[in-house]
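Lab manual, section 2.4: Encoding a predicted structure.

Procedure: take the sequence of the chain (623 residues), apply the prediction step described in section 2.3, and record the output as structure tokens. A sample record is shown.
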Amino acid sequence: MAEQFAFKAEIQQLLDILIHSLYTDREIFVRELISNASDALTRVQFESLTNQNLVDAGAELYIELKPDETAKTLTISDSGIGMTRAEMEENLGTIAHSGAKAFVQMLKERQATSGGQDVIGQFGVGFYSVFMVADKVRVVSRSATPGEQAYAWESTGAETYTLEPAERESRGTDIIIHLKPDAEEFLQTWKLNQVIHRHSDYIAYPIYVGDKEEAVNKQVAIWRQESKEVTDEQYDEFYKMLTFDWESPLHRIHMRADVPLQFYALMYIPATNERNPLLARREPGLKLYARKVLIQEYTTDLLPEYLGFVQGVVDSEDLPLNVNRESVQANRVMANLKKTITNKVLSELKRLQKNKPEVYHKIFEAFGRAIKQGVVVSPAERTDVEPLLMFPSTKTASADEWTTLAEYVERMAENQTDIYYVIGDDYASASRSPHLDAFRQRGIEVLYFVDPVDPVMIMGLPDFSGHKLRNVDEADIDLSEIGTLSADEEAPREALPDDQFGTLRERFAAVLGDRVTEVRESKNLVGSPARLVSKENDPSRNMFRINRLMDRDYELPVKMLELNPRHPLLYNLSGKLALDPQNPIIDTVIEQVFETALLQDGIHPDPASMAERLYALMQAATD
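Recorded output:
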């Protein structure tokens, strides 16, 4: 005869929340029940090692899902350890953990703020997720302990449950789920197969569905195998199945660790950052498994944002999935996992850069922009990211050739202590920058920062190995003691007399007004008539480019204009100013010199606006 029992208060609250929550992913109940069945199989397997006196000793270890469309039931069975009457009352009638109330409260908050989340698997109360889809659940179980009577547990998810003797020929457990009308999709074998492949493909025991005689799950997780047991073809096949990217990855990282955490990981670096949005995984993040059971599809807590291009899986034995684990422990475990995995990825990138530079160059070409962001968004890892950075420079032949900061330091000129860089929109424009005149003259290498993210990167990269990074547009750079002047340099033209240059400088200042902070003589210009320079600590220096990158409103930075008193253009302009100060061509040329300097610095807001002025200058030149 069936005995009736009342659920403990926490169970009543939990069931009420589960039954009435708007969970968007109700299929997790399949995952939870399969996981419970897997645990029961593992327990009986372990018990059989030391105890041969078990019911059905030597029986196949399996999990089976049997849908019955006529009865509208789904039965999930296993040949595991089974439960006695007392164990059924303990395991299904109570949550014997002090954290139950905290879990219930957390679930309420999740429901209120986000409409329900996939959190059940994190708390060891997964059995009760069945009531999201069930009108009634009957559990029939027979313990592996000889002589124990089979018992049945039954509930509709209300305030009570019943226990009664039952019949079951073999050891194990049957969970008979009477499905709600809106959950009858789980009677379809294709749907069950889909859920198993998504969540439980790597359960170690065979899972049978319907009348199939072959297991539908893979069982063997490639990431848990020894790397020597896996072929390149198998690695590539798994990557393509994982990502739906049909191009082979550039590199893979297969790792396992036992201390301080036990986990397995298989990660890949894709060949390109361009992925088909209809096929590729939708979001960044690694797949997170706990003991081969998928817990989270897109986990962004295992790698920093700048390494978000890495694809793969992490499978931990130590994830705190039970209620009796405190949240601080969960945070510590995830933090330790993230630190270990991040360090591994960074060390692999360094190894590739050293031993397989051709592979690393491809990686940096595809994902260098993300890696550069690491020095800004993850300051704690800056010293690990800095060696991975690469840039073209005045010593490289093209935009496709790069140098590292360490290589730059090795090539420093005599007496050089700082690292110099120029910012430009592309390699070609940066290489023509007037700021480079004096550096080329003295054989001093300059890095080209021509990636759109470089102005942001600079914010997190003030120095490298004790060498300060300096923009060549800084007004107070003194190169007189650095490097050696080229022997084949032509003698510079004599500068304009002080009085003539002073008159010309004043005219520039009057025409340009508050568009410049000052007009002064340049000590570094060689082949260019003018350049715009900045104060070293001017906060607006790079904000123009940063705001432009982020598509935000911006103002042009106001800089200092330096003039080259030896340049023929300024000689000619000074002559015209002396002959006829009212000549309109003078101010036209001044405007064009200023705007050309803006253009050379890559900060001209509207280059097309110069067209009318250029036509006027050409007309004047041909009169």
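Check your result against the sample. The chain has four domains: 3-209, 222-366, 389-489, 498-522+556-622.
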